[in-house]
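Handout, section B. The chain below has 247 residues.
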Amino acid sequence: MFRSGNKRLPAPWQDLFGPLQTSGKDGGAVVGQIGQSLDGRVATLAGHSHYINGADGLAHLHRLRALVDAVVVGIGTALADDPQLTVRRVTGPHPARVVIDPGGKLPRSARMLADDGTRRVVITAEGRRPDLPHGVEMLPLKLTDGSIPPDAIVAGLRGLGFRRILIEGGANTVSRFLSAGCLDRLHIVVAPVVIGSGPAGLSLAPIATMDQALRFPVRTHNLGPEVLFDCDLSAQRACGGDAKKST
């Protein structure tokens, strides 16, 4: 199967998703995904984001989910959107569903915790014991400056057997993984719409001059009226490896 790295996808999907089989330095791949407007927004000022991307962009996201072992969201996205994180728009297996929840805020009723036979993982801070439904796995990791570092999250998930990981949202979570050098690829799907204000798709530390800007190889693909920018970050990947889980 594609997830085990020994099967090609049929055309045209091999050209689009084939790099996920080979881009990782450590036998896997971590890919971030952002859906945004032409002016780089991921929501309105009021926080409304359903849906910036159209049917083609959403189908692309679901194909990504079907090809990875685990899909990861931050607690902000989990609380605001209550996502299912399943594969519904395409044919394929559901990935494990993971939420980064250092403070144990995710309610038991969250849709991503539904018992449907798919692995469910809550990443939390050491010492916390959130009230989780039966069968939900807990991955306690050490806080650094009030948050769990992205490299520790990647290592912890690799320790659970997840080789291909999709960082789906929100924008702050994807930005943190990009800043930490923990992404092999970044998929940005740009929809033909202008919002005019609202949160940006990426928010990184400020730079003074353009020579400090991130630059990397990019391939573009048409997804109907939308455009996918497939950014190859593998040469800049700075984190990886396995870490022991806390007990």
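Note. The chain has one domain: 31-235. Compare this with the example in section A.
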